[in-house]
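Many introductory courses stop at the sequence. We go one step further.
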Amino acid sequence: MAPGALTNPPPRASLNDVRAKSTPAEDRERLTTHSRTVHAAVGLIEDRIANAGVLADSPAFWSQVRRAALLHDAGKIAEGFQRQVEPRGIPWGERHEVLSLAYADLLAGAAAWSEDDLTMVATLVATHHRALHNDGGTGHGGKPALSRIYNKETDWEEAFGTSVEDVDGRPVVQVPRFLHRELLAWFCGFLAVDPPSTRPGDPSLAQRARHLLQRLLDTWHHPVRPHRGLLAVLAQGALTLADRSGSAHIGLQTHMPLPYDYLARLPYHPHSHQRQAAETLGHLTLVAPTGSGKTEAGLAWAATQIGTMPGRPRVVWTLPYRASLNAIRRRLSEDLIPVPGERKADIGLLHGTVAQTLLADGLDDDCPGREPNTPPTADQARKARAQAGAMRLFTQRVRVATPHQLLSGAIAGPAYSSVLLEQANCVFVLDELHAYEPRTFGRLCAAMRLWERLGSRFAVLSATLAEVMIRIIEESVEQPVTVHRSPEGSGPVRHRLTLDELPIDAPESVQRIRDWLNEGHSVLAVVNTVARAQELFGQLADDARAARPGDPHAALLLHSRFRNGDRDTIERALLRRHPERRPGDGALRGGLVVATQAVEVSLQLDFDRAAVECAPVEAVAQRAGRVNRRGLHPDGPVEFRVHRVDGPRPYDPDAMDAAWAALRGLVADGATALSEQDIDELLRRAYATEWGKGWEEQARAARDAFAARFLTFTDPFHDRSEFARELSEAFDSTEVLHHDDAEEYRALTRGKAGDPLLASRLLIPLRLGQLRQFDCSFDPYLKVNMTDSAYDPTLGLQPPAARETIL
């Protein structure tokens, strides 16, 4: 026989020969083993979530998920599926979860399940890979819903009866009677019920699957009550998470790195606002100046909540920028308590395109619909790694995340329902909430209301939170929100505020920065666009290096358009080169940092002088927070110079006008220190303008629209991937790969030890609107946009032509 010729596979002698997975070859897991593993994983998830929030009103919730976990892959007993998972197997073309419905129907009768139990168990079994309904077209990634795959044209007996053919053309029964009896007996033994009796004329497996699927399609075709829809999506999330856990063989961590007595472990006597945060039960808003220990206050609050909540709550820390996410992750890894035997605490990270891809790809099973001549092993290996990667996004009990990833959990469907479930019985710390534009702020307020329903709690931390923001937060939830402010005078006088009508890149302005550098000062220059940051850095970098010869980090540039890995290197250098001053540290440090908004939050940096472009008032205050951070500079208050800008990009022009007017008014009234009281007054003046009133209207409208469209769950099993795309577009961000890095990216993602999370260090963040500007094209194999624009590890990505671009 010629090499590679097809042969009839050996017959399966017993249930022990029936597999659930195909790769890796040494781990071709038995169907019964996988079913038992996923069933056990539900128990670990229940231990984590418990009966928090709305689950307290649904006593059958976890038992239904466990039953669905046991039965979710029963249809893989089909000969078509088994032949597919053989080496060089041919795709079956049918959905195993639909055949699984036949066993749900049989077990419901044997175990005397209620109608509600059967409906929910069957729903979860049917939808753990695909939606039931598409409102139009196909779903995300070209995956049609079950209602489009199975319809009036379906020959059910051909699909699930005798559709498989041997090489010699003879039909083969999909589920031999002896295997069917073995599997049914195994399920009944597991559930401790008697096997159902059989009678002549009983429906076939194909008929049972057809009837139950039609029942589900009818049940979920029309909108349902929001409460029922939410419970259904949470149950789907529990099954999907258990399936991922079982498939990836990665368990959920039980260790909590954040100790319950966190406040008592601080190496100093806690400040009053930190003690108040630790004494607060329930939602919290904390307003305290930069450098006053807000992070410690947030952790102290979170530690208190964990001790009073059921199950094993998780802590999720959110921040707006990747630079700040990376910084807080490093900080938590070093400051919190690791698992015994480990050097650092294991802190999860959920952000970016890679995470989103893993969440979607981790759901793929062994029914991908590949072309018949495509070898399946590489594709299946990719999916196995994707499942493992997806699980790593869920396993830790302390994580940092972007709001995009959290809000994506509101998009019902198997790619996102696990994200939503993991927001139940959770503790959220929303750091620097002021940094979001009004639409995102409003959506997050809508999410707060949902989190409350899920038994979760949130704390909002900020140095610059306007009163209108506090009001919107309070009115968005039902439970009270405790508001604490640090006492007046808790922050030292740190700055001498100076307003400058000249642009920051005017010759006089650039010369002033040169003079500061030559005097030995460390200087921070913050501008609003990447292009201007690159240009200003080019003018000043040599001066900074000449002032500090031999210092490899005398001049640093930070913005959004670096490879993630390069940016991480820059951030580490920044933190080492410009740490917070300690008492008695009187030496001038020298050095230059030119940055965009990426430097504004959660980077504990300290500079001697600063020149910044005008921005919305919160951004100006945050930029000031990187200068003489704790008021320990030997010169006392230091100069903080705000330059007027020629154009508003990337900000709202009205926001810029309001900020400049507020700053001018403050200076005209004699304020020069930029104290906490000055910042509060800045915020009051800015938000009292017509722009401020419009901001408030936009935030409320976005909150209510997001809640109505995404958070009602009246159609929980309709495909909503279009909503996911809309949400991504609303956040207007993506990541691209430079052509020079394509081979390395391919090796990192597709190799034997490939890991998309490792490959993410090569990706470069961009706004969606910038893809054309950087001549990007989508690579369907790597599943990423590619660019060949000039790239330099020191300067970052540069557009093909000299055009102004924004962060």
